[in-house]
């Protein structure tokens, strides 16, 4: 700590302040005549160079304390949390995981091992939020050791996602091209040495249904065979049968109540059995000539 005190003296000398007018004038002339600020500056640089390791250790210690205090404060703000438990065997298991940014989140549990997860469900049922919840818990588990769930057990993974894509007018790239490039970037970094968690929210929605289903099936089969945990949300129910041998089907659902569509946001086993696209248009007030399915 002696080195730190010496550095403090140098800084104080360079930046000393006074309220006395005469002393202030004297200080200005003294500084100009003896180049005090310049000499102090170079002295400080010399001190830093001579004590680089000590200062680096000090900054690291202060930074670590600040980071730990921030994590502790964040944990205190959560309804509940857990510390992750890491294992060697490939898999991901979360109990009652929730999204920390939602004011009234609905928790869900998941177990993923050798098979991928294919999540279906109608619009606004909770698919995208669930995927983000899983990705966020993995990210926080491997960085700040804090999960917004009651338990977290998984192997260390590399997290790759393709969520919320859009077209690029400036570069002249269509929505589908942006999707294709996003998926390609994931395919290029996948390897058998590192377990990867890949999260897709609607594969290839920018193209026609026939080619979308074909391409999505091939990509998902390719990934699940290469040391990857794959979570994908889709509206294409055909994929649940095409990928039945390698993916477990789960779904979110809704019901029509007095207030319109009502969602419970709870993950259920099997593929989705309901659709709500037309019902949603009817609820929004579309003309009957459009929404009448009789």
Structural class: alpha/beta
Helix content: 40-55%
Strand neighbour order, sheet with most strands: 6-7-8-4-9-12
Overall mean confidence score, pLDDT: 86
Calculate the terminal CA-CA distance, rounded to whole Å: 83 Å
User: Any idea of the CATH class of the largest domain?
Assistant: Alpha Beta
- Residue ranges: pLDDT <50 for 5 or more in a row? none
Categorize the overall geometry: elongated
| Rg calculated over all Cα atoms | 29 Å
Counting DSSP H or I runs of 4 or more residues, the number of helices is 10
Q: SSE order, as H and E?
A: HHHHEEEEHEEHEHEHEEEEHH
Task: Work out the count of structural domains.
Answer: 2
Quick one: biggest sheet? 6 strands, mixed
**In percent terms, what proportion of residues is strand?**
15-25%
| Tally of strands | 12
CATH architecture annotation name of the largest domain:
3-Layer(aba) Sandwich
The CATH topology of the largest domain is Rossmann fold
Q: What is the CATH superfamily classification of the largest domain?
A: P-loop containing nucleotide triphosphate hydrolases
């Amino acid at each position: 700590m002696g080195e730190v005190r010496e550095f403090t003296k140098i800084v104080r000398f360079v930046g000393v302040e006074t309220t006395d007018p005469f002393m202030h004038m004297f200080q200005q002339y003294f500084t100009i005549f003896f180049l005090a600020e310049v000499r102090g500056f170079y002295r400080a640089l010399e001190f830093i160079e001579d004590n680089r390791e000590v200062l680096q250790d000090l900054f690291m210690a202060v930074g670590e304390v600040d980071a730990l205090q921030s994590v502790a404060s964040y944990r205190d703000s959560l309804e509940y949390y857990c510390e992750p438990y890491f294992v060697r065997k490939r898999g991901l298991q979360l109990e009652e995981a929730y999204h920390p940014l939602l004011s009234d989140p609905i928790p869900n549990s998941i177990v993923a091992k050798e098979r991928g997860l294919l999540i279906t469900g109608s619009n606004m049922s909770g698919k995208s939020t669930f995927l983000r919840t899983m990705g966020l818990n993995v990210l926080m588990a491997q960085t700040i050791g804090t999960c917004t769930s009651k338990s977290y057990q998984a192997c260390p993974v590399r997290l790759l996602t393709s969520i919320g894509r859009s077209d690029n007018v400036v570069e002249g790239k269509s929505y589908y091209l942006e999707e294709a490039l996003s998926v390609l970037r994931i395919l290029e970094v996948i390897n058998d040495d590192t377990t990867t968690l890949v999260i897709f929210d609607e594969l290839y929605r920018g193209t026609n249904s026939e080619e979308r289903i074909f391409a999505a099936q091939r990509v998902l089969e390719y990934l699940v065979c290469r040391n990857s945990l794959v979570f994908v949300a889709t509206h294409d129910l055909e994929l649940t049968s095409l990928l039945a041998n390698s993916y477990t089907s789960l779904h979110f659902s809704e019901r029509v109540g007095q207030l319109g569509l009502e969602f419970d946001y709870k993950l259920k086993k099997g593929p989705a059995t309901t659709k709500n696209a037309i019902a949603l248009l009817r609820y929004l007030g579309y003309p009957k000539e459009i929404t009448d399915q009789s």
